[in-house]
Amino acid sequence: MKKTPLLSIMLFVLSILILSACSGGASASVVGEWKLVSYGDASSPTPAVPDVETSINFDEKDKFGGNVGCNSFGSEYKVDGDQIVFGSIVSTMMFCDATSAQESAVLSILSDQSVKYQIDGEQLTITSSDGATVVVLAKK
Predict the structure, then answer these.
(1) Contact criterion met (CB below 8 Å) for 46 and 40
(2) In this structure, which topology does domain 25-139 adopt according to CATH?
C-alpha cells in the first residue's frame, strides 16, 4: 500500500495549485500597454477625453511611461503586493487645453508614489493612497 502516501501527496499538490490559480486580485501582472478609460473621484470617475489616443506602458524591467493626452512621461515602478510604488515622474511640459485637466489628474495620482492597484479581467484600476481618486485603464 505504498501508493496511498503518493496519492495523498499528489492530491495535496494539486489542491495548492488550484487554490493558487483561483486567487485573484493584485497577483495579475501590470506589464503591458494600457489605455485610459477614466480618472478622478473614486466614486464617480470622469471618462477619458474622447478621440484622444492615450497609452501607459509597464515593461518587465520596472519602467513605465506613456501619454495621456499631450505630454510624454515616464519613471520607474515596483509592484509590492497590491501596491505599485512609483519613482519620480519625468514629463515634457507642453500645454494642451483640451487634455490638460485629464493629464494633470492622472499624473497627480501616479505621482502619489505608492498606490493600490487591482486587475479585473482586462481592466487595471489604480487608486490613490488615500482612496479618494482613481485611474482606470483598459488593456490595449
Answers:
(1) yes
(2) Lipocalin (2.40.128)
Is the four-CA dihedral 29, 122, 24, 20 of positive or negative sign? negative
Pairwise CA distance, residues 50 & 66, whole Å: 17
pTM above 0.85, yes or no: no
Tell me what the pLDDT averaged over the chain comes to. 87
Domain positions in the chain are 25-139
Burial of 52 per CB tally in 10 Å (0-12, 13-18, 19+): middle
Q: What is the 3-state secondary structure (H, E, C) of 8-72?
A: HHHHHHHHHHHHHHHCCHHHCCCCEEEEEEEEEECCCCEECCCCCCCEEEECCCCEEEEECCCCE
